[in-house]
Amino acid sequence: MKIVIAPDKFKNSLTGMDFCEAVETALKQFDSNIEILKLPLADGGDGTIEVVNYYLKGETIQLTVNNPFFEPAKASYLYAESSKKAFIEMAEASGVKLLQPEQFDCKNATTLGTGELILDAIKRGAETIILGIGGSATNDCGIGMATALGYRFLDDNEDEVKPIGANLSQIKSIDESQVHPRLKAVDFQIACDVTNPLYGKNGAAYGYGAQKGASVQDIKLLDKGLFDFSKVLEATFNVKVQSVKGAGAAGGMGIGSKLFLNGHLAQGINLIKDLADFDYKIKGADWIITGEGKLDAQTLSGKTIKGVLESAKAMQIKVAAFCGATDFEGKSPEELGIQYADAVMNYTTNLEDAMKNSHQYLKEITKKFAHEVLK
Known about the structure:
With 375 residues, the chain is α/β, with parallel strands linked by helices. The chain is 35% helix and 18% strand. The chain is built from 13 helices and 15 strands. A hairpin with a 5-residue loop joins β3 and β4. The chain is elongated and about 75 Å long. It holds the Pfam family Gly_kinase. InterPro entries: Glyc_kinase_flavodox-like_fold, Glycerate_kinase, Glycerate_kinase_RE-like, Glycerate_kinase_sf. This is Glycerate kinase. Belongs to the glycerate kinase type-1 family.
């Protein structure tokens, strides 16, 4: 029997590798002959970098870059010399995690530091760069990132504009003559899990500006900037900006990474599955055991378990979901494509106990599954 263990993390409780270890231990105690394959996954959010390095086997590169307010900050990314692949999270250089809540001010924030990480990876010889664009503190449409790579954003007087969201309306033209010569040779894969357009009521500013420190007036200013700048982008790149799904992700970094990097926007889970060679490795499996902190309707709209279910269904592999908590909202697990489901909260009513002892509860869940299903 072949069983694949392919979970996401339980946030603030278990890493994906912790999950794999707990389930493997319990399965081996039940039957030491079970073939077990550990393929931890992530969807591009917190904790993705550890999962990526499980497959990338790269080294952590640390350098000093500009933080969202042009101040020096240490940031790191992964680079594997053997495969010439890099994994960069924009949150490392341009994220809210670098700031205190009272510092949030996306109209004056820049993605320059993210561009500096990309530039360093290019100089090291990266041929593929996976860029995660979650957790940003910015709304500059990626012009900071692009500035680090040699793009120049010019006003009516052909003076260079400071690359922040508040200045987007000032930009009248884009000079590409000094762009790094290797930029176009790199394959950029962008982990993007939102589908917001660039501007308008569902756009970057109205959708996410407030949680990044923007006032009502700031949001109007930023939205107008995104609208005005979209016309410059359309004239330069011949793309209908507002029709691009995910253009408004990360304060416009979605469209910025697509156009300035010639990047391909994809769901984070699909990029991680590709990196893991997931669909090839699960062939012949009898079960895939997956899980994450909470399984609900949102889980199935682009998160890790949805990615597992898509692959499992295509190969007719049964799926078991071991989670912290579940809410199927009136549906049965089978309706969602899950043949077996259990949750830590079925074993305790105390959330603190569940968080603290999830490793042990996961072993209990696995033992119960083995005796009921694998007997």
